[in-house]
């Protein structure tokens, strides 16, 4: 099963595409990283243009990888409403793009991702990133951080089914 993980944002949206050979295994031999990266928009762009770019780039990724499932990080807690609103707008575009392609979407909060990937809901970001690196047998931790997070989010879908 091909799974697309998304770490939503307006300036940067991380993505990670994985192949899970079986939905019943947590073995690192079960997983293959098919690609990762980020969709970036400029703060100089008007918000509608930023959201349009996010939609277009995400549509391209969906066409290229044809995932069966999209897994998106849920908004969990924001101290700053100025940050929460643009991320919510980006997430809306992400969900709409998936719906237009008839792709099933699952959501997990950051503590759920940390728990299922690193073994603790309060794990440090670096611990989650090192687990992602180990599972995919990567020489280095995937960069940028948003992409590493997106790979962890994709893994969470499989791990949640085996919890």
| Poorly predicted ranges | none
CATH architecture: 2-Layer Sandwich
Domain module tally:
1
* H/I helix tally: 5
User: Structural class of the secondary elements?
Assistant: alpha/beta
Determine the N-to-C terminus distance: 18 Å
User: Strand portion, in percent?
Assistant: 15-25%
Give the SSE order as H and E letters.
EEEHEHEHHH
Shape: globular
**Main beta sheet strand tally, sense and closure:** 5 strands, mixed
Query: Quick one: CATH superfamily?
Result: Ribonuclease H-like superfamily/Ribonuclease H
Please write out the topology.
Layout: E1 2-7, E2 12-20, E3 31-40, H1 47-65, E4 69-73, H2 81-100, E5 104-108, H3 110-118, H4 125-135, H5 145-161
Parallel strand pairs: 1-4, 4-5
Antiparallel strand pairs: 1-2, 2-3
Helix pairs in contact: 1-2, 3-4, 3-5, 4-5
Tell me what you see in this structure.
This protein has a single domain, classed as Ribonuclease H-like superfamily/Ribonuclease H (Nucleotidyltransferase, domain 5), CATH 3.30.420. The protein is 47% helix and 21% strand. With 163 residues, it is α/β, with parallel strands linked by helices. Strand 4, helix 2 and strand 5 form a beta-alpha-beta unit.
